[in-house]
Amino acid sequence: MSGPMVDVRGVYKSYGSLDVLRGVDLRVEAGEVTVVIGPSGSGKSTLLRSINHLEKIDRGYVTIDGEFVGYRRSGDRLYELKERDILRQRTHIGFVFQNFHLFPHLTVRQNVTEAPLSAQGRPRDQVEALATELLEQVGLSGKAGAYPRQLSGGQQQRVAIARALALRPKVVLFDEPTSALDPELVGEVLEVMKALARGGTTMIVVTHEIGFAREVADTVAFMDAGRIVEQGPPPQVLDRPRHDRTRAFLSKVL
Amino acid sequence: MSASFVLEETTAESAGSLTVIRARRPGRWAAGAVVAVLLAMAANALVTNPAWDWPVVAAYLFHPSVLHAVLFTMELTALGIVLGFLLGTVLALMRLSHVPLLASVAWGYVWLFRSVPLILQLLFWYNLAALYKQISFGVPFGPAFFSVGSMDLIGPVTAAALGLALHQAAYAAEIVRGGFLSVDPGQLEAAAALGIPRARQIVRIQLPQAMRSIVPAAGNEIIGLVKGTSVVYIMALPELFYQVQVIYNRNGRVIAMLLVAAIWYLVLTTVLSVGQYYVERRFGRGLARALPPTPVWRVRRVLAVRRAARRRRSAGGGDEER
Ligand SMILES: Nc1ncnc2c1ncn2[C@@H]1O[C@H](COP(=O)(O)OP(=O)(O)OP(=O)(O)O)[C@@H](O)[C@H]1O
Ligand SMILES: [Mg+2]
């Protein structure tokens, strides 16, 4: 397939009577970084969670590298996949949570190796070598044997990034990865993410770090009330927004 | 340690050479002395009053029939706990599953077996043989592959173990379910996002974290069951409590024989309590920044501090105490 790496088409999602996503379209090419910004409650987290099928969408579809997420296509019908197959699909999609969600009873190294071993069944020596390499990449070689609670927030989030990368995913989704961090720890996590972006990792990042968006993003998408209101290269969206709502939001966060 | 310190001097310039003197607590000493005297009186009464019959206690403590009874009590406890928690875990997972039928059946089981007194359940299983003469294995509602007389299958020992386990399972189910509910839902979400297979999520991610709250409650249950096995005496099974009754009915030394039983129950629960402490430590890994020190380690540290203090005093007064 030579289409986009991530293709979100006409996605609707509601919780009861609350329409959270109201027709979202988003395309992310391989190797590109898309930053999603928008006010609280606009549906950014829900969009990310729909992309890896942590939330089931009501209408529309998501494909990753041409493969339907959560469904199998046959003719013009989509058949819901079994949980096993959805879990297998998720190994192609890295996810980094705002609150890390590291496994507290496992060491840093075990956090990183768990999914490649149990979800992908890759050989242990290969996975261990990969873990060593990834922990070095995020600057935590010395912490392999530590438990998450013994680390600072910034260090924990870097472990979470290494854990997501260990699956060798096609795309990594970040949901406000620095929002739970003390201000002085934000930089170290953003540095790791910038290095990833330079290395050609396909990323979708929800963040309030406008500086990061400006520096790293290929595309910035502004989301409001369940829709992507406008998207484009950072200078266009951040400096010359076309929509009043974008302008109003930016004037508050800048 | 949260001991408070009283600084002798508070001038800033000599801060490096300040001596820390621990606060005096005369109240503690007085309370300690009172309790010590009471303890001594109690010990005296235990040892010197001939009614306790210590020589008889000594004679029967390791009597073969008593030892056999202790062993049998341990077997019943182990069977009850292991089978109870296995079944209880299955029930808890059923209850937590999103399949309404499974969840309701599990709920119904817990409801039933918690509602009926254990002693009644035991008698029921014991007398089950009278109810169903044959137990058949085969296709449900269809032909049987083979049958056994229920008397052969459910002897008194099996009935006792079965009764204890089935009863225990109801309580274990709630304990295990509570443990699973205590795990942060974000943990499951992270595991799901990583694509970790469902069974593995339960065993590797949820269960170890659930154990944090399961172990203390399970410790309670095990210790409760050690003593709870004594109700099977109504089935005339030679567990500890029944056995000492048999003996004192023969020799008339009621107090002494009850003491023998009490001592053994104490020994068993002590061993279990110590075991529980270490199991808790095992599952506490990573959940606190540092593991609490073991009692042995703590004693050693206190001794080391004492020794250091003595050495310092004999050396003519050192500076700081860390
Ligand atoms: N499980 C749920 N049940 C009901 N409502 C939900 C649920 N999850 C999210 N919502 C609602 O959906 C809306 C969008 O939530 P979402 O978390 O996607 O917003 P967001 O853009 O990520 O906001 P923030 O910047 O605060 O993280 C909110 O109004 C929220 O209250
Ligand atoms: Mg959010």
From TrEMBL, chain B:
One GO-annotated biological process of the protein? amino acid transport
* Entry-linked PROSITE patterns: ABC_TM1
Entry GO MF terms: transmembrane transporter activity
| Name of a matching Pfam family | BPD_transp_1
Topology in the lipid bilayer: Multi-pass membrane protein
Q: Which InterPro entries match?
A: AA_ABC_transptr_permease_3TM (IPR010065), ArtM/GltK/GlnP/TcyL/YhdX-like (IPR043429), MetI-like (IPR000515), MetI-like_sf (IPR035906)
Alphabetically ordered keywords of this record: Cell membrane, Membrane, Transmembrane, Transmembrane helix, Transport
Its domain of life reads Bacteria
What region holds the ABC transmembrane type-1 domain?
Answer: 70-272
Which residues does UniProt assign to the signal peptide?
none
Gene Ontology cellular-component terms for this entry are:
ATP-binding cassette (ABC) transporter complex
| Membrane-spanning intervals of the chain | 29-47, 67-94, 101-124, 144-166, 255-279
Its localization reads: Cell membrane
List the Gene3D superfamilies hit by this protein, alphabetically. MetI-like
UniProt record similarity statement: Belongs to the binding-protein-dependent transport system permease family.
Q: What protein is this chain from?
A: Amino acid ABC transporter permease
